[in-house]
Each structure stands twice: as structure tokens, then as C-alpha cells.
Amino acid sequence: MQKRFDMKGQETIGEVLEFIQTSLKGFKLSSKETMRAELMSEEVLVRLIEHSDFSERNYISVSINKFLGNISIDMQVPGDEFEFMVGPDLESGINDESSAEAIQSIILRSLGDKISYRHSRHFNSVRLNVFRSQYFNLYLILTAMILAIVTGTVMKYLLPEQFCSFVNENIFQSFSTIFMNGLKMCAVPVVFFSIVTCFTQADSMAGIKRVGLKLFAVFVVILIFSSFIGYAAVYLFKTGTGSHLSAALAPSAATQGKVLSIKNVLTDVVPNNIVRPFAEGNMVQLIVLAVLVGVACGACRIKIVSSVFDELNRLFMKIIGLFINLLPVFIFCSISSMIIMTGSKGLLSVLGIFCTAVSANLILALFFVIILFAKGFNPFLVLKKSMQMLITAFTTSSSIASMPDTMLAAKNLGVATSLYQFGIPVGLTLCKSTLCIYIPTAVLSLANIYGIEMPFSKVLSVILSTVILVLAMPGIPGVSIIILSSLLIMSGCPVDALGMVIGIDPIVDMLATPVGVFGVLVLVLVVAKSEKMLNK
């Protein structure tokens, strides 16, 4: 919706706000979101009019847009460029006018992440992000996948082969290489600083007694068990076996990582110099080094050292977040390239990995139900009382977002307050059991697709590394990409293989999150009963 308003003085502001209010009603926003949008619009409009110049163009342009669930308001007012987010001047004398300007500046700066300003062709333009859909990233990825399948199919079967090869090598593969290089550049420091920070911020662990340690032990056992479920599902369904890709996608000697075995892990577990794990991307040595540094920092209790590692962790998380924002473009390029080089065989392989991951999560869900039966709980009652939790986990694909509902379900099931207030947050943060299923499933399936031998000793190394990384890594979007890029190198697969599974990752996550959240609730119930902290 777009409308122009002739500038007739202060009454124009009222007309603009009335237009915005009427238009937003059609988007079914809550009254709180609508009121917030109106207040934001009023503050921004007043600010733009204060620096306007209507000598050449005597109108204000306002448009309200909806794209993939996101709602935004765009305003254009003629005028010279100015500093939109200026800070309040607290040193000047205090009067009504300066106080009003200071309040206005504080309000605008508090909305900084929802407002973007630019100046072009004698127009000051501001975009207000009114509503961000929780499915926006999923919509982008699904759109990129569909466009990639259509583009790749058309190029593969309808366009000249020379043209397809040129576009694939110079555009699709070039961007994919840039993305993967950036990911590899950040993956090693992100893993290292995440593990170190995990230890330096664990001061509260000293106060955790027997119940906390029992919860932690149960979570670790479930993570290991979940990883073996992923391995068993790949072995059972033989995912990727017999569907080796063409030589164009086969890993070269330069891209293959060091072959790991139990002997290698034991004899080469400690690096002979501190730079080697970073230079070679040796995840086993990097994990050991990070644990040693983290434990030492925790023992020394030097706040400045802990703060440095924490800030470095935040820095590299921010950097890798910039690459994650390019994920839809990478998915488009990688899937298009895969179809051009392999045709339908590549898509069938990806579909096989998706079905295997979903089946493995169903097996884990069944295992949690069996635990409830074995411990004397009524699974149907537990499911009934946790239904809102499961719906929230499914719709948001976030275990953290479902935390209030999970804690409410634990309370309704009679878990002691002291236990669920500690166990639920820790469990949702550490016990990412469905991620432990997905990572081995993807790594082992890709190894089969690329024809790479995976003896059990090598599988065990991947599983143990998965558990450690899942425990240490924060629950941020794209964390599975970071872990996968590291473990693919360990298994001997090319990192480019990540492009095959990265498109299905958000879909699997949406289906798997309810299983993981339900598992945490079940484990807290079991521990509560064993510690007699359950109100019958």
C-alpha cells in the first residue's frame, strides 16, 4: 500500500498516522504491535519533517509493505541529509525544547535495530520494521530451494551444455567457494572460543550438588545415545550407499581431511604446538586445547582473561552471523550447481538424508515414551500436559522460545520448583539431542554418497567430537552448519558437500525441535522421581 500526502502543515501528520493505522488493521497485528508501530511512525515522521525542504516537492510518500511475513513502513520526505540518530545533548541548558529533543533522541536510539535511514536524490527515507515473522528465514530458504531446483533443471535439460558449464564454474561454484571459505575461516575460532567460554563462565557449577551432576550425566548419556541412533539409522537404511556422485563432485586429495582412527585420537590428541590445530583445522586437537585453556582460565579466576575470551567469542559469532545471512544465496548456488552436474541423482540423495534424519528423530521420540512407561509415568498424560510446549517448539523451531511452556509443563506434572527452574534451562541449553542425531546422519550419509570409507573407529571419533561440540556450542541459528563444516573435514569429505544438506537443515530442525524439548522434559521427570522431588 502506497500513498502520497500533500504537505499542508501539522494536519498532514494526522492524515499519515490515520492511513498507517487503517492499513495495519488489514495485517491482523496485535493491538500492542499496532500501537508500537504508530508511536514509531509518529516519532520518525516528526523527525523527518523537522529537516524537510518542501520548496521543490511538496509531498510526503508513505508505503506499507509485506514480504514473506515481514511488515515494514517506508517514509520519504524531501530534504537535505542529516544525522538521524543523533544522541541527546545533555551538556546544554535544560529547557522544554531541549528536553523534548532529548526524549525524542532517546526513543529513536532505543529503536535503532528497527529503523534504517538513507538519503538519496534530495529525499530522506526511513524504513520501520514493524513486524518480523518467525518463519522469515524458513521462507527465504524454501524459496531459494525451489528457485534452485527450477533453475538447475532448466539449465541442465534445456540450455546448451557449454553455457551451463560457464555459469556453473564462474558464478555458482565461485560464490559457493567464497561462502565455504568464510565458513572455514570462522569455524575454527568459533569452536575454540565457544568451548573456552563454556568453561570460564561455569563458576556456578561449583554450587551444583548431586542433583545437578545427575542431570548433567543424564544429558551427556542421551547425547551419546542420540548420536548412535543417527549412525544406526544411516547403517539401517543404507543412506547414500550406491548413489556415488560423478567425478566432478568427488573430493580431491587437497580437500580431504586427515583420516582419523582411535589410534590417531589417542596418540595425536595433544598438539605439539599451539598453532597447529588452528592451521590444520584438526578438531580433535582444537577441542583438547580449548578444554585445557578453559579449565586453566576457570582455575586462575582472572576476570580480564575470561572477559577477553568472551568478547572474542562474541566477535567471531558476529562474523559468522554475517555469512549465515548469505545462506539463501549459497543454497541457491549450491543446489543449482549440484543439479547441473548430477541431475536428479543429487536430489534423491538429499531426500534420502532428510528421510533418514526424520526417521531417526521418530525413533528417539519413541525411546522417550518407552522411558516414561518404564519409570511408571503415563505417556498420554505427559503428552497432554505438554501439548502447548510441543506446539511452540514446532512453530518457532527454537527450544529456548519454548522454555516458559516447558517449565509450566514440568510444574503441572508435579516437578519440584527448585529442580525444574534449574533443570529445564540447563537441559534446553546443553541437551540438544536431535542435533546429535542430525550431525552424524549428515556426515555418514555424505561419506557414503562420496564413496568414503567410514570404519567404526572413525565413526566413533565423529560421534565423540559431535557430543563435545554440541555441549559447547551455543544455541544460535546456523550452529549445525558450523559443526558440520568441522566434522566433514574430519571424516575426509569435502566441505563443499555441506551444500547438499544445508537446504534441508531448517526443515529438519522444525520437525526435530519438539522431540528434543520433549526429551528434556522426560529426563527432568525421571531425575525428579529418582530424587523424590516429584509431587504425585
Major beta-sheet overview: 5 strands, antiparallel
Overall geometry = globular
Highest CATH level, the class of the largest domain: Mainly Alpha
- What proportion strand? 5-15%
CATH topology of the largest domain: Proton glutamate symport protein
Spell out the blueprint of helices and strands:
Layout: E1 2-6, H1 10-25, H2 31-50, E2 59-67, E3 70-78, H3 96-110, E4 115-120, E5 123-131, H4 136-157, H5 161-200, H6 210-237, H7 262-267, H8 276-280, H9 283-300, H10 303-324, H11 327-342, H12 344-374, H13 379-385, H14 387-396, H15 403-412, H16 417-430, H17 433-449, H18 456-472, H19 479-491, H20 498-501, H21 505-530
Antiparallel strand pairs: 1-2, 2-3, 3-5, 4-5
Describe this entry's structure for a reader.
By secondary structure, the chain is of the alpha+beta class. It has two domains: 132 residues, Histidine kinase-like ATPase, C-terminal domain (Heat Shock Protein 90, 2-Layer Sandwich), CATH 3.30.565; 394 residues, Proton glutamate symport protein (Orthogonal Bundle), CATH 1.10.3860. It contains 21 helices and five strands. The protein has a five-stranded antiparallel beta sheet, covered by helices on one side. Strand 2 and strand 3 form a beta hairpin. The longest helix has 40 residues. The radius of gyration is 27 Å and the shape is globular. About 4% of the residues have low confidence.
Annotation keywords:
536 residues; 2 domains; Proton glutamate symport protein; 7% strand; Heat Shock Protein 90; alpha+beta; five-stranded antiparallel beta sheet
